[in-house]
């Protein structure tokens, strides 16, 4: 099952010629969602060829570099004849509803549903859930963990012993679907051997390096963490409630994640983010800096990057 992450915007508060404000596109299990939607996200989606067919947008906090792109995106959706409802999740729903009313969005041809999420709340999709967790920024903020449902490990040998021939029925059983063979229903648990843990991607948004992140990101496949500065600017990071690359790496190490992706990059490092990577690698080796249009493909055993 395809699981692809596309970074549409990776800059800090100020966009640069190399980096757009924050936005991450995820395509997984037939769903397409956004985490944050900074200025110009709809144009980034055009360049990345993701299409506008997203079902949901998850906003980490109500700073404009993380949500102002919603308005351009909604206009583009409307002009393209969208009819499917759009669900927007954020920690301050009343504020966003007020803005949408001011723009007259109740008169669009599609409905926009704004939902509030707080620490521990989650949204269930067919094959995964998105869980909100509290972070520490200068306004109310949350991060999000996308967690795939666990599944049984398919056993071809057990399927063969039941007389089921290799082919489409194997695929359906491996994906957790019951099938009928020779008049009998075969359930996935009849032809499985153990349980496979679902994949997990954690996105912090803007935050200080709080212990909650370690808890949520435990054994995550990918941790996408605020990394606005190097430690030379640690005082500024603390004052503005951001994180340094070193702090992000220390959390990644404590949480035993597979890959750390640094994002929300200050304009200071827009042309050369090597200092951030160098600092993070002092404590955590498996780290990269997100660039606009970076794509990560997650299978169950390894990562592909292009």
Can you describe this structure in just a few lines?
With 306 residues, the protein is of the alpha/beta class. Helices cover 25% and strands 28% of the residues.
Description:
With 306 residues, this protein is α/β, with parallel strands linked by helices. Helix content is 25%, strand content 28%. It contains 10 helices and 19 strands. The strands form 4 sheets. Strands 6-5-4-3-2-1-18-19 form an 8-stranded mixed sheet. A 7-stranded mixed sheet has the order 7-8-9-14-15-16-17. It is globular and about 65 Å long. It starts with a strand and ends with a strand.
Features:
28% strand; alpha/beta; eight-stranded mixed sheet; Metallo-beta-lactamase, Chain A; 306 residues; seven-stranded mixed sheet
The secondary-structure class comes to: alpha/beta
Compute the CA-based radius of gyration: 21 Å
Query: Which percent band covers the strand fraction?
Result: 25-35%
Could you say what the CATH topology of the largest domain is called? Metallo-beta-lactamase, Chain A
How many helices in DSSP terms?
Answer: 10
Most strands sheet: 8 strands, mixed
Report the CATH architecture of the largest domain: 4-Layer Sandwich
| Oligomeric organization of the protein chains | single chain
CATH level-1 class of the largest domain: Alpha Beta
Number of strands: 19
Mean pLDDT across the residues is 94
Within CATH, the superfamily of the largest domain carries the name Ribonuclease Z/Hydroxyacylglutathione hydrolase-like
Low-confidence stretches: 302-306
Shape assignment: globular
Please write the string of helix (H) and strand (E) elements: EEEHEHHEHEEEEEHHEEEEHEHHEHEEE
Number of separate structural domains? 2
**What percent of residues adopt helix (DSSP H or I)?**
25-40%
Euclidean distance between termini CA atoms: 18 Å
């Amino acid at each position: 099952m395809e699981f692809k992450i596309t970074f549409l915007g990776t800059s800090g508060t100020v966009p640069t010629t190399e980096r757009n404000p924050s936005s991450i596109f995820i395509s997984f299990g037939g769903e397409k969602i956004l985490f944050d939607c900074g200025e110009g996200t709809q144009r980034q989606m055009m360049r990345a060829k993701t299409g506008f067919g997203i079902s949901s947008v998850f906003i980490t906090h109500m700073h404009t570099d993380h949500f102002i792109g919603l308005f351009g995106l909604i206009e583009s959706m409307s002009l393209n004849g969208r009819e499917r409802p759009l669900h927007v999740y954020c920690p301050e729903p009343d504020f966003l509803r007020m803005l949408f009313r001011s723009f007259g969005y109740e008169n669009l041809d599609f409905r926009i549903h704004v939902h509030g999420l707080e620490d521990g709340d989650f949204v269930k999709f067919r094959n995964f859930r998105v869980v909100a967790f509290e972070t520490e920024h200068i306004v109310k903020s949350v991060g999000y963990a996308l967690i795939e449902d666990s599944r049984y490990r398919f056993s071809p040998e057990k399927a063969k012993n039941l007389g089921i021939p290799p082919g489409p029925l194997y695929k359906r059983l491996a994906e957790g679907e019951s099938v009928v063979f020779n008049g009998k229903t075969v359930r996935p648990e009849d032809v499985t051997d153990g349980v496979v843990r679902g994949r997990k991607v954690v996105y912090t948004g803007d935050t200080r390096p709080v212990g909650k992140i370690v808890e949520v990101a435990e054994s995550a496949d990918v941790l996408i963490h605020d990394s606005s500065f190097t430690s030379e600017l640690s005082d500024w990071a603390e004052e503005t409630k951001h994180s340094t690359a070193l702090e992000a790496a220390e959390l990644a190490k404590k949480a035993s994640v597979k890959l750390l992706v640094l994002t929300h990059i200050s304009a200071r490092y827009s042309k050369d983010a090597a200092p951030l990577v160098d600092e993070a690698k002092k404590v955590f080796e498996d780290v990269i800096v997100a660039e606009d249009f970076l794509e990560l493909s997650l299978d169950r055993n390894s990562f592909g990057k292009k």
